[in-house]
Amino acid sequence: MFNSKQVRYKTILRHLLFWLAYFVYEAVSEGWADEDTLKFALEPQFLTAIPVAVLLTYLNLYLLMPRFYYKQKYARYAMAFFALILFGALLNRFLNYAIWIPWDNIHDPSIYANERKDFWITVRIMRNMIKALPVVIVTMLISLMRNDIKKQKNLREMEKEKFSAEMGLLKAQVNPHFFFNTLNSLYSLILNGSDQAAKVVLRLADLMHYMLHEASSEKVPVSSEIKYLENFIGIEQMRFAERLEVSFQYSGDIHDKMIAPLLLLPFVENAFKHSLTESNGWITINLKVTGAWLYLHVENSYNPAPVPLKSGLGLKNVKRRLELTYPGRHQLSLNKNSETFEANLKIEL
Description:
Helix content is 64%, strand content 14%. By secondary structure, it is an alpha+beta fold. It has a five-stranded mixed sheet, with helices on one face. A two-stranded antiparallel ribbon has the order 1-3. Helix 6 (197-213) runs antiparallel to helix 7 (222-239).
């Protein structure tokens, strides 16, 4: 990254290079005429033409454009721009009249003898205006292009920062949401005096290690995410061993495949949340990786209740994360009937 001093030096160098190029252009064009030779010649008037061109350029860039053009006052800018070019043409004519005509009288009498001595010569003033236009317009276009590039860069950085902030917020919502449910499960086991409580603590420790050290990354191995799901399912099975039948299977080439962390958990968590009612329940989880695609199928039992089944924070969260992380590269369908709830997810890894 460049600090402010380096940026200032780069800006000064860029301006110097531009004016050097303009200097060479003027010197070559003055001596070119209509001959097939390349000459490098400087007329004395060039010594005042360059400062006038510099003055017009920076008045346009740093006065007229900020005051009128950038505020979309285009009519006022057009009038001010015309006045600026006319001012430059008159200033050039005045310098020629005050400096270079007397100069020719001393150093080149033959030219002085043929020179018109009037200040106001309309054709020459118009010619000065036309000569001033290219450098002012070119610098204006360069400035607009640089501003547009800078604006696009800032927009990309803002989008990136917004994406990072929103993803961080969504991940932060996952952690307490999950641990709240897990601690409830552990509390139930302790109240019932179950010897499974110690195993739950060990699995919970593994889950916390994963969430603290791996889930902060943008992508994690699919194998790590599967192990995470296995620990979560193991905790829930210890709690509902007699009331819940769970099947979890995965297949395919999961090696070297990466996925956004904590993306699959909400579907599994939702299945555990809604599969048990007054009777026993069941959950089927199938995960398959084929080529660059990951397929997740989660199906669970539920009995229709007076209060309609709601997706809750977990599924709303994961839908938004899918939109941000895999835009146009995922398909999600949630279906329910009188006895089952089904989630099908397809992601291009």
